[in-house]
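User: Before I run my own analysis I want an independent prediction to cross-check against. Here's the chain; please return only the structure tokens and, at the end, one sentence I can use as a sanity check.
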Amino acid sequence: MNGKTRRNILLQLLFLAALIGATFWWLLRDCDMETMLATLRGASPWLSGLGLLCMGLYIYCGGSCAAVLFHGMGRPMGPLRRLKYHLIEFFFSAITPSSSGGQPFEVLFMRFDGYKATESSVVLLVVAVLYKIAMLVLFFSLYFLNFAFLHAQVAGIWFLFLLGLFLNVAVIVVILLALYAQKAMRRLCGGCLRLLSRLRVVRRREAAQEKLDAWLASFHDCAGFMRAHPWPVIKSFCIVLFQRVLYLLIPWCVYEAMGLSGVTVWQMMGLQLLLSVSVEMMPLPGAVGISESVSLVLYDAIFGADFRYSAVILTRGISYYLPLLVSGVVTLGTRAAQLRAGTARR
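Assistant: Structure tokens:
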């Protein structure tokens, strides 16, 4: 990493720290701290631990998705590397807007271990495509399975929900066009580029065209990989589905840990997916702030006024803040080891 990259990472971390501080101040300003702490102390450690296990398996499955595809190319990847790479991806996704930095930095760390950047980029792009498709498959399945319940909950966040759903569907449409209708996608992007150039939004049209060509070329390679390795892609998609289910189970574990009843596991999974669809595309690192705000709205009818703050703290602690800390330590340790290895080679 060059000095500019390190400086950008530091600025992102400082911004994230300020955002987390502001979020907790806003989140807890009207909260009865004694009640919240008593609720957290009274939560079942076994069921809270089950939530942590789900998150741990979620991270491991994330690495396994890529490992299956690498194995299909004859490049095996051990269990520890799977875990390490996905923790690195989690860390950089968590500190960059819209999770945009995870996979590019993961490619850099993989390259140090001997994986070609071209191979890693294609594999991780395939995983990203499968992740988006799996998310929408689960969303529509769980939404219609729990239509009456979820339709009632979405009333308080209908604008964010519709915006998030539109953005996710739009991304899937763009991905499918880029994969399987490149001529149409090239004409569409070319028209948009000409329009933006006339409006002087894009001032360096040639440079933008080069980036566009490189982006389309990456999807061409991705489509070729999926055609050449259908069985590894199918196995990876099944792992992605299982990974998403594990993540969706975390709020249910928290709900059960607090001794509550009346809401089924399918309803809690649908509620969490509703939250994910609404906030994942927002341009904030880790969706910090907006995720907690939307959670408070959605959890109000489920956990009640006495439990919703504790539920948000525990759920986000398991699914974001603790993994952020662990992944940060792993990323720092990995980078330090790479620097020592680079010095020894000299």
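Sanity check: The chain has 15 helices and no strands.
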